[in-house]
Amino acid sequence: MNRLIMLIFFVSSLIFAASSQARTVNFNTELTNYGGSGAYLVLYLTDANGQYQDTLWVAGRKSKYYKHLRGWTRSAGTQVFSYDGLTGASRGQGETFTITVDVADSLIDSGYQLRMDTAVEDMRENRNDVVVPLSSEGAGKAVSGRGYVKTFTYTFN
Amino acid sequence: MLRKLHSYLGLAASILVVLLAISGAVLAINPALDRAQAKVSGTDQISVADVAANIAHLYPNVEQLQRKASGSLIVYYSNADQAGADLVDPFTGEKIAPYSLSPFKRWVQNFHRSFLLDTPGRAAGGIGALLMVILSISGLFMLRTRQGGWRKIFRPMPGSIKQDLHGHFSRFAVLGLILSACTGGYMSASRFELIPVYQQVDPAFPETVNGGKPAAVDGLPALQTIALTDLRELVYPYPGDSLDVYSLRTDQGVGFIDQASGELLSYQMVGTAQKIYEFIYMLHTGEGLWWLALLVGLASLSVPLLAFTGLQIFMKRRRSMIRIKNNATANSAEIVILVGSETNSTWGFAKTLHDALSLSGYRVHSNSMNNIASTYPKAKKMFILTSTYGDGDAPASAKLFMNKIKRFTNHSNFQFCVLGFGDRKFDSYGQFALDVNNVLLDKGWNPLSSVDIIDTQSTQAFNRWGTVVGSLMGLDLDLIYRPPRISTQLLQLVDRVDYGAEVNAPTAVLRFIPAEQKSGRFFNKLRRKPRLPQFSAGDLVGILPTESDNARFYSLASASKNRQLEICVHQHPQGICSNYLYNLQLGDCIKGFIRENPTFRPQREQSSILLIGAGTGIAPLIGFIRNNHTRQPMRLYWGGRDPNSDFLYRAELEQYLQDKRLTELVTAFSRTEERCYIQDKLLADAPKIQALISEGAQILVCGGRPMSKCVSAAITEVISPLQITLEDLKAQGRYLEDVY
To answer: Which fold has domain B489-595?
Structure first.
């Protein structure tokens, strides 16, 4: 079942990529002073029901720690261990950073959700640290996370 | 070779390993602290379900349970978007304290792992661990060589702790250091994937779950079977997600638990490779092994001290290095001088010879025996000057010689001459020089002269040897060796007690205190009071009667903690130094310096000590008795001439008998009617001495050479019925001699 969805999504995303416009989205994140070492973060997309769609970005390069990003690994499955999309180094406490990703137009204002899972060595792991809809309405509005994310904002270019 | 490796590597690595060791020692306290806070006893009797039930009441929004290696139980929860974590009592689920990582600990941990420099820092840490492994192991081999074998490595070491901090501390620390360096190196290597890393792939999220109504957490069968002590982590399902599951990690495996049926899903055992990694991790961090962490932490604390004392030793050796001027190349040299030296003192003599031969117009090449070339095409003569190390072994700079000489070839009209340096007091007097000489004779080489040995670096004997060898070469060789200037201390005579004038044995006990140096050096001015150098009873003081003369050595009857430097001097009619000392008046000053004699010491571990001496040989022995504060059984056998005249320290010895610093005193006097010598008393007491030796007693003998021969003969006879020989006792450090 999962695989079928994945396959459909994969094929459709290829079609989208070829046929539709993409928009550049800036994701701005500020972390709290949680008092620990570098945080692993993942930003991914699900549909309104929480079904995994796509991974936008991962911070932290050691795939053996990805299992602590539990919501992501659970919904995306073992493919995360061979994730080869956009990555960066793990992020320190109190850091503010912006990442820029091209997102297909069709994913915006269609009920899709942005989710962020976070984890820190020897500390709690936060599934769904941030959950926000990806919509024109939500753009530019800062939301605060449940765990290590202090504020999260996205804007369209 | 080993020493070079150890010292240069130590120099290069010192800062790195010191930083690693200090931060490691700080971290080593944590497991014990964590353990003290955790409630552990009895937790193997309760199941995870029991614990979860209590926690469910007190923490309705629990997200995660974690059991640390120390046994502490942590609950992660969130209330109204406010995340928190508490350390809880495993029996009741009640909060003990809020849980958070200490920023200090985290900082130290980061520093220890990476010097706060991320990947380059981590690499440096790994290199530090590797260097530490090499340093520890090379150090261990050096300890073995010094102690004379692996079995003897934990035998008492010669010398006091103060005099040999490096040796004593390294022996204490080396195993802990090897352990933490090896495990740390392994972890670093696996971090950088230099060794095959076994990475256990966690089981995938279960494909199908029950999806029914979630059961109460204590009703889950899977949790009921797991003892709390096996738990590592339990992550609760996401609230409201009926398809989510519990994620479980125990000591044995990883899996999921269905929140409706309570079944264990996709469970996977932990593999052996993973277990090995975790075991090594535990050995390194001490997490869950608090006592090991403390031991290894203590060992790490010695690293700064080892680095510092190691540097001191290195500098000391470096300073005593001698540089040869006008050293010809091996290929052009007409005369070759090869030097075997442990402490570099032989090099001083070699330099004198080198300079004198160069002055006579020869092209001379000097080098260490280890660096012997495969041939010397133009050489006509070869001199080998060598000391002996330990029990007849090659000194450091000659260790490779015996092997290399096998491959050495030279033309036939080639003469050699071996000169040994040694100390007549030791059985192995010049043994290595004799061995080298025999090997060269066996090779069929022509000796220029027969082998000769210089006793205790005598400049006169060296000069005489030069004259003989020079005449054989048709040269007028006047070898004047100037010993390196020794920094002496000014000592003032404050007390003297005279004995023995009536029996023709004028003897004096002299006591000195440090005198004010008339030196303008700033550092000396800063010191309010001049201080005695460090010494223990049994060490020697070198005394320079005049500027030009060689030092004479006297055994010390006091330790520096006694605040006085005390010696016994017997006036010899022709003795330059003994007359000089004997004629001192109160208030006169002399120049002296300390020479350590660490081998001649009573061993604390031995059941009892037998001290044997005659005449002024009592000096170190009375020093041992005086400082016997632990009241270790000590017996003194001492011989003099007449109790009414030369009974040295009579009153003091009686006092020591009273306060039990001395267990027994046996005297023998030769100018009384009894006409008795100390060896007679030993033979008379044979049964008692046999019993003492069987119980592990140690014997220390001090006196003149004739007396020491009689004593060793007597002891040999006394112990002949026992299953032990005098050689055995000597090998075990239980028969020590200080002979003059």
So the answer is: Elongation Factor Tu (Ef-tu); domain 3 (2.40.30)
